[in-house]
Amino acid sequence: MSRRKFLSTAATGGVILGAPAIVSAQPTIRWRMPSSFPKNLDTLFGSAETIAKYVTTMTGGKFTISAHAAGEIVPGLQVLDAVQAGTVEAGQTAMYYYFGKDPTFAFDTSVPFGLNCRQQQAWVMDGGGAALMNEFLREYNVHNVGICGNTGAQMGGWFRKEINTVDDLKGLKFRCGGPAGQVLTKLGVVPQQIAGGDIYPSLEKGTIDAAEWVGPYDDEKLGFYKVAKYYYYPGWWEGGPSTNMIVNIKAWESLTPEYKAILQAACSHAYAECMAKYDARNAAALKRLIAGGAILKAFPRPVMDACFKASEEWFAENNAKNPKFKKIHDNWVKFRSESISWFRVTENTFDDFMASAMTRRG
Amino acid sequence: MSRRKFLSTAATGGVILGAPAIVSAQPTIRWRMPSSFPKNLDTLFGSAETIAKYVTTMTGGKFTISAHAAGEIVPGLQVLDAVQAGTVEAGQTAMYYYFGKDPTFAFDTSVPFGLNCRQQQAWVMDGGGAALMNEFLREYNVHNVGICGNTGAQMGGWFRKEINTVDDLKGLKFRCGGPAGQVLTKLGVVPQQIAGGDIYPSLEKGTIDAAEWVGPYDDEKLGFYKVAKYYYYPGWWEGGPSTNMIVNIKAWESLTPEYKAILQAACSHAYAECMAKYDARNAAALKRLIAGGAILKAFPRPVMDACFKASEEWFAENNAKNPKFKKIHDNWVKFRSESISWFRVTENTFDDFMASAMTRRG
Asked: What is the tens place of the pLDDT at every residue in B151-174?
């Protein structure tokens, strides 16, 4: 092709004019994808909607995914079961919800004193995490396509009274789930399992003493600051919890390479959008919460240290009794140590300097 | 559809059997995408390769993008010019390389004491950054599809002697580019423009006193630790520099909605992969560098404070003389303040606790 001709082609966007119409080999598919999240968690459920929108758009409507909020098709905590049984092809969920079946699931979302959101993505994509988790998930007939969302480090929750010492945890009725509840039990906390909509009245009546949810943007909607004003951080049990798109293994294996790549890329785009929304919107929400009376508090260092020690015991107990857990833990714990040792050098130093500079600058 | 029939459909992955073959409306396209990065920066150039691979796979080869390392089609720092002129349809680059045309470009990659990688993605996707930058880029005939890579916070570089006071910067011949060079000039540094391959001999001979490149994984390949052992952090001029995929505006506008969505999702997937690789691989590289004799050093606080002050002057000067710069700066600086104020609460506290816990745990 002459340079002149090439330039003319390039200027029209590289379209090869007169190329023959191509008969697509891609099958027409419609999938339903229930989510574990309600519509009012618009960042988390929004990831499911983004996946649905992008897959449908990228394929010109040939591969259509419909996203369904928790409860529309199946209850939010039964997404895995529905995908496993093949009653739906796909689901968007947080794998630690299935921690009761096996604590190993939690590595796919977040474990106490675990990875931040970047470290979690790095472990999954480049640290061996994806292969290990998918090997584990295979016996549940599901394939984890990839991370499709993350909240960033969560807040520690809303407390009716201050936590000044480790002893203040004794007898504390704290709404929190999964591994964190088991760890905190070691320190005398009485974990409470309460659905999102029931937390506010329970806090108001004093039936519970404290509750964790997500972070400012999501917490604000539920109004906790009106009934439990101490807003603690960090949520050490969820330093970077990720959500995932899971697909029934037969459905996954039936896909063409085109459609598999489309699902992977859609997950990554949904992840970027979800993280961006939280990182952009939590700031303003926190300001409003503080203006409304919320009092920010960091967990005292001795409390953090005691919780870290209790978590180490929790890992050791699970390693001792669960070979699947231990197999993944051994890879994960090495990654955690190395990755965090690197982050503490330039990344954390930059972040900490900027935090203090912004405080001084206003 | 009966439940029985639905379940049978679902079990085959939702494929609607017997659906007619569909004649695709998607045009056949071949694009060339030069990169600003050489092949040995396999994480950064890898993003271009990932985009090419995913776009080609997702479209079953109908939309083919070929990625070309710096120098193959155009020199690395002329990617924007080639896309602007339409000699190529797309490019993968870091927009701050075009800072000489207008410092406003730098907001699309990184500016001194700017955003970390998550904050940059949040500003672009949810803080108004994408619209502002694309309005600015339109006069260069290019459209920024999205962030397709990031290095994370970079290191401050390799120094032949220690930097203990602000005075130690005076007369320092430092290989560094763009805005950082202008800021450091205010403190007496003499910025040097030297291509990657020439840095090592210049440091060895003492023609220059210091050089910054990226971080452990990339720096290790160039062997700087052998000739300048002090490895400083943080690289405050690149707290989260992102790379972008840019497309000639006519080429972009000629794309179908399907192909536009495919490019966006491919960028997000390349970004996730790039960040994951750096976050997973820098740790081991840093260990090897230290074993090889590199001495880790944090810039002293007074040096950081002086650089921050000089950066604030640099922003003020550009705001005063460049209305395009000011328009974007005004949005950006508000975002920086709010976003960092939020990060310092739970995210930085979690990271800092984990860093100290890992140090104690070993």
From this structure: 999 999 999 999 999 999 999 999
ipTM for this model: 0.93
Contact A344 B337 (CB under 8 A): no
Residue A346 domain-assigned? no
Q: Verify whether the Cβ–Cβ distance B235 to A346 is below 8 Å.
A: yes
- H-assigned helices in chain B: 3-11, 44-58, 79-85, 117-126, 129-137, 178-185, 196-205, 216-222, 249-253, 257-291, 301-321, 323-343, 346-361
Chain A residues within an 8 Å CB radius of B13? 29, 89, 248, 250-255
Nearest CA to A275 out of A116, A101, A166, A142 is that of A116
Q: Is residue B120 part of a domain?
A: yes
Tokens of B198: 């020439």
> If you measure CA to CA, which chain B residue comes closest to A346?
B234
Taking CB atoms and an 8 Å limit, are A261 and B153 in contact across chains? no
The number of helix segments (H) and strand segments (E) in chain A equals: 13, 11
Domain hosting A136: range is: 3-151+240-280
- Which residues on A lie below 8 Å from B119 (Cβ)? 279
Chain B CB contacts of A11 under 8 Å are: 86, 248, 250-251
Cβ within 8 Å, pair B31-A14: yes
Q: In chain A, which residue's Cα lies nearest the Cα of B152?
A: A347
pLDDT at B21 over 60: no
Segment A39-57 mean pLDDT = 97
Residue B345 within a domain: no
Residue B29 belongs to some domain of the structure: yes
Residues B232, B164: contact at Cβ < 8 Å?
A: no
- Sign of the Cα torsion B253, B256, B257, B258 reads negative
Confidence at residue B24, expressed as pLDDT on a 0 to 100 scale: 55
* pLDDT for residue B279: 97
| End-to-end Cα, chain B, rounded Å | 59
What CATH number is given to the structural domain containing A18?
A: 3.40.190.170
Q: Which residue of A has its CA nearest to B32?
A: A14
pLDDT tens for each residue of B302-319? 999 999 999 999 999 999
Domain count, chain A: 1
